[in-house]
Amino acid sequence: MAVKFFGQYLVENNLVSRDALLKAIELQEQKNLKLGEMAVSTGYVTQADIERAHNAQMSKDMRLGDLLVEMGILTLSQLEEIVIRQKNTHLYIGEALVSIGALNSEQLRMHLDAFKQDQAQYVSERIELPAGIPDGLVWEMTADLTYKLITRVLGIQFRPGKCQSVATVDSNFMLTAMDLSGDVDARYILSVSEGIQKEIAKAILKENSVDGEPLEVLEDTVMEFINVVCGNVAAKASQMGKIMNINPPVVIHPPASGLQVPSGSAALCFPIHVGEKDKMELILFIKA
Amino acid sequence: MKKVLVVDDSLSVARQLEKIIAESGDFTCVGHAKNGAEAIKMNHTENPEIICMDMNMPGMDGLTALRSLSALDKDVKVVMVTSLGGVGDKFTEALKLGAKNVISKPFEADNVLRILREL
Could you tell me if A285 and A147 are in contact, meaning their C-beta atoms sit under 8 angstroms apart? Predict the structure, then answer.
């Protein structure tokens, strides 16, 4: 019921052992050369060039390949050739498991089909964002996965509203935030009314009523929900080649006038229409 | 009955796991630690056979605690229960550090019990 990668799916379902998967990963680590290693193997650069570029990376936020081109060590066409060679020789985890004898080809095909079916529910749908937002595809996926998990985990019926840029976030009964770092620098915020907070608590605690629950527990269920959402977003982001780290969630109590967007950040608001009485929004603060 | 320690900063997740364990008939929950440091202490005092531990916790996180637990106690079996299970690098790191399996959140009771029974 979550975003997974193939190796995890196989171990979680006891289709290959933990030890076999570790052995296959070790084989992948031996066979799948990093960009610098592949560049050296082609003879276009030396190990000393790579070390020089790594040192330069400490003061420049650039990928190794782009930096090697900028430093005049590689031409753009040489870099493209290296990247293509890296892709063409990549050993996938399924192939590695067949190589070590943990699976045969027929089992691999069968398990891959079942895995794709399991993960089909998390295939992202396009969501329109305002122009000029960095890493737009990542934020489209974030909103889409939030909608999917509201349906699957919380069972709440809703209609997504049009995404818009905002300067202030409206106040609400509870705002819960999680900071996202790595290849992105952003804050994920879920804003909920009191009624929605109770619906989330009922779904997370699997209880029919949460009337006697202390506020601490009710707030914790909303924090746990965004932890689940952002963890699954991080998994999807890694499939898109983006490293996304998540931090423990926090509760924000904004003033009645609302929450100001930090300077240097763009703010996107995704209204989640849940009925007349309740209010729910997803807000993303994205650093430029 | 096998003794299980639950490690999660979230009260609601701890409650869910404690309920699943209590209703299983073959496991008993010996406590709830809120971070990795508490988990290491409670592993010493409660001597669980299985630890179900979150990865993303304030203070000492789950992977740091897993590294220590693997070095300190060769018998305890650790299963990570985390929303980050689908991040390949995190999953691989957990297995390399000695986790027996990784359960992704959101989880279902049947899946949790199947994995605990297979340990």
Answer: no
Which range of residues forms the domain containing residue B53?
2-118
Take residue A29 and report the two structure tokens written for it.
Answer: 């680590």
The confidence score (pLDDT) of residue A127 equals 83
Q: Considering Cα of A72, then A78, then A84, then A89, what sign does the dihedral take? A: negative
Cis bond upstream, residue B106 (ω within 30): yes
Instruction: Provide ipTM, 2 decimals.
Output: 0.87
User: Does A32 lie at the interface with B, CB-CB under 8 angstroms?
Assistant: no
For residues A270 and A283, the answer to whether their CB atoms sit within 8 Å is yes
State phi, psi for B20 to the nearest 5 degrees: -60, -45
Each residue's pLDDT tens digit, A119-152: 887 776 778 888 888 899 999 999 999 999 999 8
Q: Which residues pair with A260 in a beta bridge?
A: A168
Beta strands B50-53 and B2-7 are parallel
Give the total number of structural domains in chain B: 1
pLDDT digits (tens, 9 = 90+) for A154-202: 999 898 999 999 999 998 999 999 999 999 999 999 999 999 999 999 9
All domains in chain A, ordered by first residue: 6-121 (no CATH), 124-287 (3.40.1550.10)
Yes or no, beta carbons of A246 and B104 under 8 Å apart:
no
Both tokens assigned to A186: 């952003």
Q: What are φ and ψ of residue B58, in 5° steps?
A: -70, 155
CB contacts under 8 A, B 17-36 vs A, are 19
Residues on chain B touching A221 (C-beta within 8 angstroms): 12
The CATH number linked to B64 is 3.40.50.2300
